[in-house]
């Protein structure tokens, strides 16, 4: 890992091309969907207390893919659980903008509001897919739609649509145990989309997949951010996910450390380091993965969105 | 991998062919049937305990049917007995000799027939058993057997015997046998007058006097068309001294109470045992099923399911288990009710809809109590464990 230096939480992270926010801010100029300030989680108390996450600040914009990496035990899952309203922080705030454009502070929301908050705001993707084996692929997706308030044939159609979207329409009546890991994870992604959430949260989504299926899944997540303008927060050890991330944050001992800044190649939409092929355009430096992409961009810059 | 672009807010396409789901995905049902073996075992276990309850209840209901058969099928609308005597079985009733005439005089009474009634024993070549001896006026027929399945009405030295008792005691039509030690000849067979302990022998009043004594035990009265049994019963009460008067329904009810009073405690005990077994089976099945699916419940919670929804899924499993078990138990009980009498004619099992409904409802209640334990576990389950535990 290219951990370069320790920084204070408030300024940690990797500002993207549109940098400027004081927090670990969105790599896009879009409005943040998630705004995290001073987020802290301490498990236990006294001698056995574990500071899993320490005063973390973070902004995630809509349409942004954020990858949080870090060694085992660094607090990645803890962070994700707090973002997803599954774990009450010890301190700090998590403002999330729901589909109704209203901001809610998850950290302060009453316990009884949390389930509805989850079912309306977040799509969860688990390392081991966590599909219900008693249900078919379609039902697994429909049940999440039910929880978000869509029932009956509307939920069923939403499920069918989403299966189609992840390319599994032919597996509609299959049970998880009859599907490959890759297929199961795609069903899980479809399930995460069933409530049309502004934010997707994924914990090690590729850990149980082989290289090729992992890459497929990564691209799928990227598309969900691009096409639907969803924010995607992934915590993972998986280096392959770097190529689809807008930003990569490095978590260590519950705090973000800065790593080399990255940006997006506007042609192939890959995450690229700020080295190698680049050009100046509208007083902005644009970086590319290769000379080929750079050439393509130069021929018709207006057809690409930097 | 094919990924098709589709805006999330796009309207769903027109409904396709096939099943149209309504409501929510039936998670409880799916959970129950995902593990067919456990579901089957649980259902069968509960069914066995419900069968125990149903059959026992059916045996007593059958006994009530048998005990009340004579009264229920009697052409009489009103029954007159000695003051304070409300039943035939296990009672002795004696009326004055002029009671039949005095009852017949009461306005609204179309006919009045005396019967003589006593208990004793009947013996044939293959054994002996307890019997009720009924003496009636064979010329008018009032108070005699409802119908003969074989033979003819009895004269002097002759009797009508219940076919099941005749079969058991080895008495054929025309054979001689003894009632209360006196020899008589079987000339006709009646039906449905035998229970496990008892049968009925019908003789003419004169024959009753020869075998036992000359007495009037009850007076059976038929009413004029359109007369109200209760009104006429009141008139008999005021017109004839020292009598108890009951309508057919009241007399049947009093008679049934002999069995129900006797059986109530036993029935309650056995029902409790049966339902406790059902409770244990459901609780065990549900708890193992729930513990095996704890991760699923955690995942559902993470996805936003609240405890009431998960409780409904658990309750649905209970409901389905009990309903299926009840269906199995009822089918088995009905089959037993048909088959058992061919092996043991004296035993009648009567399965009533009320008994089935009551047993099912109680089992449901018991099942929901059994569900409290897994429900507690689910209620306290931390949704975050969905991310922590792996299969
Ligand atoms: N429920 C808990 N109680 C006490 N300590 C906990 C609990 N959950 C996590 N921890 C501790 O908090 C720290 C962060 O854990 P966390 O699971 O967030 O790490 P992680 O980065 O997800 O690790 P991994 O990569 O192995 O999944 C660890 O030291 C862990 O032992
Ligand atoms: Mg983890």
What gross morphology of chain A would you assign?
globular
CA radius of gyration of chain B = 31 Å
Number of domains of chain A: 2
N- to C-terminal distance of chain B: 26 Å
Oligomeric grouping of the chains: heterodimer
Please give the share of residues in helix of chain A. 25-40%
In N-to-C order, the SSE pattern of chain A is EEEEHEEHEHHHEHEEEEEEEH
Reading side by side through the largest sheet of chain B, how are the strands ordered? 2-3-8-5-7-6
Number of domains of chain B: 2
CATH architecture of the largest domain in chain A: 3-Layer(aba) Sandwich
Q: How large a portion of the residues of chain A is in β-strands, by DSSP E? A: 25-35%
Order of helices and strands of chain B: HHHEHEEEEHEEEHEHEHHHHH
Mean pLDDT figure of chain B: 88
Q: CATH topology of the largest domain in chain A, what is it called?
A: Rossmann fold
CATH superfamily of the largest domain in chain A: P-loop containing nucleotide triphosphate hydrolases
Counting DSSP H or I runs of 4 or more residues, the number of helices of chain B is 12
